[in-house]
Model the fold of this input.
Amino acid sequence: MSGRLAGKVALVTGGRGGIGRAICDRFSREGAIVFAADLSAQGSMDHADDAPGGTFTRLDVTNEVSVKAAMETIDAEHHRLDVLVNAAGIEIEKTIEDTSLEEWNRIFAINVTGTFLTCKHALPLLRKSAGGSIVNFGSYDGFIADPGLAAYCATKGAVHALTRAMACDHGPEGIRVNAICPGYIDTPMLQSFFRDSGDIESLQQAVRDVHPTKTYGTPEDIANLVLWLASDEARYASGQLWVLDGGLSAQVQQMRL
Done:
């Protein structure tokens, strides 16, 4: 590895999920000090410092007290934060009519309010960095809509708008803010979608075929782009929504899977 993040301090929410874990692993291999923040360590002991992809930190992004505590820990140990990645998120596969108010509030609490809280309380630490970087997670579903994902699409549109606003507000302070907008990525969430279909192999192939590249992405593909946005190489990149979807949204018409 090139050591592009050598000595940088990074916090990754959703750090024990599919995409979040890949980001933490890549950051660690590039020399960063990584806090992998999530609700659980997925079977590991709490505060398992030897867990892959950095130090596990228990964090509930919907709870302001939990978010503040995580930032206080980072401040006490390192006195700054260089990179914040907001990878925590959930999906609800329903139309708006079938979505309950409880489900609506929950997905917004995690996908939108969680991003707001971590960014809000990370800003004082990011100002202490020589050049802070925030990477949020939107989706191509924030631009165009898949059927049956109404609440999810709404949350990602909100993250897109928040990302641009923060880039304008905090760029003068040396803080860059971008969002990555993935398409289909091979994560536990996608595999759950396949399992629910019944004919797993047929749907997997259909998903591949709908892409111009004839494949869907991997968490490592996402981690590669996050790495660049977090690094000093991306010093002029801010306020952008980076679509990474194998050309899926470039097409005139989408196949309805």
In short: The first strand starts at residue 9 and ends at 13. The two ends are 38 Å apart (CA to CA). DSSP finds seven helices and seven strands in the chain. Strands lie at 9-13, 33-38, 55-58, 83-86, 132-137, 175-182, 241-244.
